[in-house]
C-alpha cells in the first residue's frame, strides 16, 4: 500500500472514531452565560463557549438546573449529568449532543474517578 493511502486511511479512521455515540457522565458546568463543559473520568469536554463554539444539539438539552444544581453566580453553577454524545478526543470537544439527563449530585460525589467540581 502507498504511504498516501495509509495516511488517508488513518485520517478516515480517526474521523470515524470521533463520531461514534458514547455516554459521558460527570460534572456539568455552566459558570456563566453560554459557557458549558463536562468533566468526566477522561477529562474536560467543551460543549459551548460564549461567542464561539456551540455543540450541535445543545439547544435540545433539557433544563439541567431544575434538580440537583449547585448555584454559583446567580442561576449558573454545576450539576451531575449523563450525556449521550459524539466527541472529538483530540480537541476535547463534544461534537454533538444526542441526549442529556441530570443525575443526583451524590452520583458524581461518590465517583472517585471524578475530580471535585
Uncertain spans? 2-17
| Average of per-residue pLDDT values | 87
Count every beta strand, where a strand is a DSSP E run of 2 or more residues.
Answer: 6
- The helix count comes to 2
Helical residues, percent: 10-25%
Order of helices and strands: HEEEEEEH
Strand % is: 35-45%
Radius of gyration: 16 Å
Q: How many structural domains can be distinguished in the coordinates?
A: 1
How far do the termini sit from each other?
A: 49 Å
Structural class: alpha+beta
Instruction: Identify the overall geometry.
Output: globular
Largest beta-sheet details: 6 strands, antiparallel
Explained architecture:
The protein is globular and about 30 Å long. Strands 1, 2, 3, 4, 5 and 6 form a six-stranded antiparallel beta sheet that branches. The chain has one domain. 19% of the residues lie in helices and 39% in strands. With 117 residues, it is α+β, with helices and mostly antiparallel strands. The chain is built from two helices and six strands; from the N terminus they run αββββββα.
Layout of helices and strands, plus pairs?
Elements lengths: L2 H16 L3 E9 L5 E5 L2 E6 L20 E3 L5 E12 L4 E11 L1 H6 L7
Antiparallel strand pairs: 1-2, 1-5, 2-3, 4-5, 5-6
Summarize the structure.
By secondary structure, the protein is an alpha+beta fold. The protein contains 2 helices and 6 strands. Strands 1, 2, 3, 4, 5 and 6 form a 6-stranded antiparallel β-sheet that branches.
